[in-house]
Design a protein that fits this description.
Blueprint: H1 20-33, H2 36-60, H3 74-78, H4 82-92, H5 116-128, H6 132-155, H7 161-173, H8 186-201, H9 205-215, H10 223-238, H11 247-264, H12 266-275, H13 280-286, H14 290-293, H15 303-311, H16 316-332, H17 342-358, H18 365-368, H19 376-379, H20 385-407
Protein name: Glycosyltransferase RgtA/B/C/D-like domain-containing protein
Organism: Frondihabitans sucicola
Subcellular location: Endoplasmic reticulum membrane
Length: 417
């Protein structure tokens, strides 16, 4: 008896061995006492073990290619593709003269790769003396871990803790999650995006603008956030009867939305000033689709039509495109997706509209869709163990599929990640 309470004897008190039930109770107690951030980081670390094993498996069978020798080490394998462009930016920066093809078109060059990520990597290289590839991987992994932490905080606002943790699991094992640990800017951009979305949900608009300013020089797409903010303003205005929208907030959101739109065009403006060519950035971006449809001008909302006709000639591509857009819209209004705060759905819809306006669909499409990761919260709503296990298994299998088709180089490779 202690303090007037009778304690229940355990196996240890009776001198016996712990039973399976006691082990389960002990583990459950330890789990409840574990801080949320430790649970998220444990999920992240375990997911990195899986993705690292897959990457190393492909590295062991990688033949000599344009970026590496045969059987490269992890860091070299992680620096392929766009990683080489970020390496060039970190080493020499940007040229004031755009390279041209033999027929006078702007050739592929580093102006397509924004500076925040390579500048951070370069700074750490100077501080530590470490080479680019391992430093870039460290920056990517650290940013991805922080993204998982912020994403949990977003999900926890509208999901039970267990579902929010499963949403983090889906983020960490998603088919393209190996990109979170290579020399790409995706991890850093997702971190800045997740922080911006959390600040939007908290209605801390001015602080959000500062984060978006950094994001606008990390990856393209911030201009879509201006549309999301416009939708946010409109929604708050329409619902002001039950959710006050004072004049101060109206002005703040409007100013932040306009500022975000300007930030979305800041890097193209920098490229234009530095090179003396108004279309320096867009011409550079268009050079990547020239292998598919040749050189041309950027006409908003025509790229997906061109891509649909290129991939599926004869009109079937247009049908496929329309069906895909309709199915996506139906998912956004499904019961699972409606569990997401409307501001997250505003962001997802705005970003997809942005992609429809400017992006040409090819093998990088899956990568540029990574910013719609808040939708993983919708897939975390069902609590069926069978459903959850199946999702994780399928996601890991698709990691292998993506690495096989888009990262690993097998001779002439026309499926860049």
């Amino acid at each position: 008896m202690a303090d007037g309470l009778i304690t229940r004897p355990t196996a240890q008190h009776l001198g016996g061995e712990p039973t399976p039930r006691h082990w389960r109770e002990s583990l459950a107690l330890r789990y409840r006492l574990t801080p949320w951030w430790a649970r998220v980081l444990a999920i992240f670390v375990l997911s990195r073990v899986i993705s690292t094993a897959l990457l190393l498996g492909f590295a062991r069978v990688q033949a000599t290619n344009a970026w590496t020798v045969a059987r490269p080490d992890y860091a070299s394998f992680a620096k392929m593709w766009d990683g080489q462009w970020y390496f060039i930016v970190a080493q020499i920066g940007y040229s004031s003269t755009l390279p041209l093809t033999a027929d006078g078109h702007v050739a592929q060059n580093q102006w397509a790769f924004l500076p925040v990520y390579p500048v951070i990597v370069k700074g750490l290289m100077v501080l530590t003396g470490a080479p680019f590839a391992p430093t870039a991987v460290v920056v990517s992994v650290a940013a991805a871990a922080l993204t998982a932490l912020v994403f949990f905080q977003i999900l926890r606002r509208f999901l039970p803790e267990g579902s929010a943790l499963f949403g983090v699991v889906l983020f960490c094992v998603a088919p393209l999650s190996p990109l979170l640990q290579v020399a790409y800017a995706e991890s850093l951009f997702l971190l800045l995006l997740a922080a911006s979305l959390l600040l939007l949900l908290q209605r801390r608009y001015w602080l959000m603008l500062g984060v978006l300013a950094a994001a606008s020089f990390t990856r393209p797409g911030v201009v879509a956030f201006a549309l999301a903010l416009a939708l946010h303003w409109s929604h708050r205005w329409l619902t002001r009867g039950r959710d006050p929208f004072p004049v101060r907030d109206r002005v703040t959101v409007a100013v932040v939305a306009v500022s975000t739109a300007i930030l979305g065009f800041a890097w193209p403006a920098v490229a234009a000033i530095a090179t003396g060519r108004l279309d320096a950035y867009t011409a550079t971006e268009l050079s990547w689709r020239a292998d598919y449809i040749g050189y041309g001008r950027l006409l908003p909302f025509t790229s997906w039509v061109q891509g649909a006709n290129w991939w599926f000639p004869g009109g079937s591509g247009i049908v496929f495109l329309v069906v895909a857009i309709v199915l996506f819209g139906l998912f956004l209004v499904s019961p699972w997706a409606r569990r997401l705060p409307i501001d997250l759905r505003f962001w997802v819809a705005s970003y997809v509209v942005y992609l429809l306006a400017v992006f040409f669909p090819q093998s990088s499409t899956f990568r540029v869709l990574m910013p719609v990761f808040p939708l993983l919260g919708a897939l975390a709503v069902p609590r069926s163990k069978v459903f959850r296990v199946a999702l994780v298994v399928v996601a890991v299998l698709l990691q292998w599929v993506w690495l096989y088709y888009c990262w690993w180089v097998d001779g002439y490779d026309w499926t860049p990640p």
